[in-house]
UniProtKB/TrEMBL annotation, chains A, B:
The gene is kynU. InterPro entries: Cys/Met-Metab_PyrdxlP-dep_enz (IPR000277), Kynureninase (IPR010111), PyrdxlP-dep_Trfase (IPR015424), PyrdxlP-dep_Trfase_major (IPR015421), PyrdxlP-dep_Trfase_small (IPR015422). Keywords: Hydrolase, Pyridine nucleotide biosynthesis, Pyridoxal phosphate. GO terms for biological process: anthranilate metabolic process; L-kynurenine catabolic process; L-tryptophan catabolic process to kynurenine; NAD+ biosynthetic process; quinolinate biosynthetic process; transsulfuration. Pfam families: Cys_Met_Meta_PP, KYNU_C. Its EC number is 3.7.1.3. Homodimer. Pathway: Amino-acid degradation; L-kynurenine degradation; L-alanine and anthranilate from L-kynurenine: step 1/1; Cofactor biosynthesis; NAD(+) biosynthesis; quinolinate from L-kynurenine: step 2/3. Catalyzes the cleavage of L-kynurenine (L-Kyn) and L-3-hydroxykynurenine (L-3OHKyn) into anthranilic acid (AA) and 3-hydroxyanthranilic acid (3-OHAA), respectively. It is an enzyme of class 3 (hydrolase). It comes from Saccharopolyspora gloriosae. Its cofactor is pyridoxal 5'-phosphate. This is Kynureninase.
Length: 416, 416
């Protein structure tokens, strides 16, 4: 595509040529001609996944059948994949488990945290948190006889000064999923701990996108999905991190047979397995787990600090493209310009967000929107190039200036 | 293999020749030379699954990417696969949902039942129920302030006569997973209803193996896994049935964004979707769901009454083989001889169950055992033949009489 700015094209080429992660793009099967900026909703297909799944279907399931629970280590997959994922979120082995959905893992973590802080009756969450985080906080509060308080991260200190003694757990995301704002995880964690509360991080928009040194932060719990920056596939199972220092005392709310200390004893009474394994509940979703395990090999040899450096270069470049190409066209960047406060996406506010995103999609530049008026462009350092972002900005410029899009709002009930 | 009984060989050949379901076996990719009698733990690979998953990986995920939530109907998959599965369990459309694990679906159903019967404080379950059913009943009781009572199905009438007014829900399985005994689902359902209680059926060992006319029975809730007789694959998602008459009033315990009335509105407050959809919680596990959907096509054109007729013929024949070939070798059949009380498996008690099952497996006859002393032989009318069962009985005869097995008990912590 002809760009409106030869200088930006030259800069993109320079940055991409100097990018040490550029070869990693070949680990993904991206369709030709598509610029994919929605990896923050669903990561693309890693090249390692299809051969793995073919093996899982034909050899492991089809030929080895039930024996695969032992012979192909299906039984240990939730813990093995958990450890592989733990390396990306600063978790030493034995603290991360993969299985179920983020919602279920959230319920487990919220319940466990509440029971580790008996007598404290408040669950604090962010009013801007993703809906499931808010709804599950309400569910956990109802089932445990607690109350939810909505406190913005910037107001946490003031809130804890007034009511901190009643707070059992602070449940936040490092990233505002709409604006792409990155909160100060270390400072918020320390603030919660000073008040005697535990902290639960939802890493859906952080895991695989930036370093999250959970152990070093002394975080208590974390959860996140496997299908965004980790590219584990649609509805890939989620993860749960529980810090080792809680392993002697934590209690999970839903007791399933796979979390039993002696699962094949099929005993009458529940006795929790040691460590993170007690958070296992039902039979693990093997296809999704092994797809995620294969997907995580895309990070082999990649340092999360490199990922963060490139991610910031990408979002910085896109903000520059926006400033140069989209000025005076009704766009307002809502992602902070300050790199310390910027996650791995750029969000632009525009009254015709829906129509513009659809028009981009029809021209093979795939982003997404969040109602009512935010266009979201997610970057993934493993495969996004600066050139991809210039293509997106150029197309957005052309679409907006020519009016080649439908400005009517979306139908209810559709994935946007 | 040379059989010890030419008469049984002749009978097996006659029965297999007359079997109207014999051609259905080609819908499964069973390995050559293997007799697979563990479909009641993990069904084999249906031929329809690999091409479906190849399409899901390369076209739907790899090429269509995030657009697949709409364009390939990923969003509706939990309800669509639920309706397809509902046909096998006597459920009219709109009452069955697929997703999460059996354990999570159990928690949803137990909680919903308890909240439909406020003021009643007992959850009744079977002391012989599968561990997860018992553990989850305890979890639900603790979180809802209720108590669990363990009552055998044969003692239910007496218990309800004494304490029926306090019972919110009776949570049973039609099948004892160890003995293969089939309970009288209709009588037990009526007994619970007469006491004003609701009934929850765990169909893990029934769905796909026999007709279960849930609507006709006026059952309230049912759950079950997708990976046994339904052959959906390892850790396939589970199902939840909630009778339509409860849809106006039921409340689920865990509120996730996909169960919201307006999921893409991303609203601050939870408002439940109408019907069965409110039991959706997190993002659905697409690989497992679409594998299960493909697997269910193995039932196309098959009447569940035919499945039951053939299943009884198979277990009847195996009991006959046992009586003729294994007499005086230390085996005690624990599955009822009465066909009305027999599910789709035959269990034999033997002190060396573990070693015998291992010896069979090494010779390509795959069954399983349940500690401490039960050998389980599951039959699936879609692919098991009478000849398969004669092979198993003949091999068991030879192994036992020659002592060609290790009589030591199993290691703890292994899938047996």
């Amino acid at each position: 595509m002809t760009t409106a700015s030869p200088a930006l094209a030259e800069l993109a080429a320079e940055l991409d040529t100097a990018d040490p992660l550029a070869p990693i793009r070949d680990r993904f099967l991206l369709p030709d001609g598509v610029v994919y900026l929605d990896g923050n909703s669903l990561g693309p297909l890693p090249a390692a996944v299809p051969p793995t799944i073919t093996d899982v279907l034909h050899r492991q399931w089809g030929t080895d059948l039930i024996r695969s629970w032992n012979d192909n280590d299906w039984w240990d997959a939730p813990l093995r994949v958990g450890d592989a994922l733990g390396r990306l979120i600063g978790a030493a082995p034995g603290q991360t488990l993969v299985g179920d959905s983020t919602s279920i893992q959230l319920f487990t973590a919220l319940s466990a945290a509440a029971r580790l802080r008996p007598g404290r009756e408040l669950l604090v969450t962010d009013p801007g948190h993703f809906p499931t985080d808010r709804y599950l906080a309400e569910s956990a509060a109802r089932l445990h006889g607690l109350r939810v308080r909505h406190v913005r991260p910037r107001d946490l200190d003031a809130f804890l000064a007034a009511e901190g003694e009643q707070v059992a757990v602070v449940s936040y995301s490092p990233v505002d999923y709409r604006t792409g704002e990155l909160h100060d995880v270390a400072t918020l964690t320390r603030a919660a701990h000073r008040a005697g509360a535990l902290v639960l991080w939802d890493l859906c928009h952080a895991a695989g996108a930036m370093p999250v040194p959970l152990d070093e932060l002394e975080a208590d719990f974390a959860v996140g999905c496997g299908y965004k920056f980790l590219s584990g596939g649609p509805g890939a199972p989620a993860f749960l991190y529980a810090a080792r220092r809680h392993h002697d005392s934590w209690q999970t709310p839903l007791h399933g047979w796979t979390g039993h200390a002696d699962p094949f004893g099929l005993q009458r009474d529940y006795a929790p397995a040691p460590g993170i394994a007690r958070a296992r509940i039902g039979t693990p979703p093997i296809l999704g787990l092994l797809s995620l395990e294969a997907a995580l090999t895309a990070f082999d040899g990649v340092d999360m600090a490199q990922v963060r450096t490139k991610s910031l270069s990408l979002t910085d470049f896109f903000l520059r493209c926006t400033a140069e190409l989209l000025a005076d066209l009704g766009f307002e960047p809502v992602t902070p310009a300050d790199p310390a406060r910027r996650a791995s996406q750029v969000s632009l506010r525009h009254p015709h967000a829906y129509g513009l995103v659809r028009a981009l999609t029809e021209q093979q530049v795939i982003a997404d929107m969040r109602a009512p008026d935010i266009l979201r462009f997610g970057v993934n350092a493993l495969y996004t190039s600066h050139r991809d972002l210039l293509t997106a900005a150029t197309l957005l410029h052309r679409t907006t200036t020519t009016g080649a899009y439908d400005p009517t709002p979306p139908d209810a009930g559709k994935v946007t």
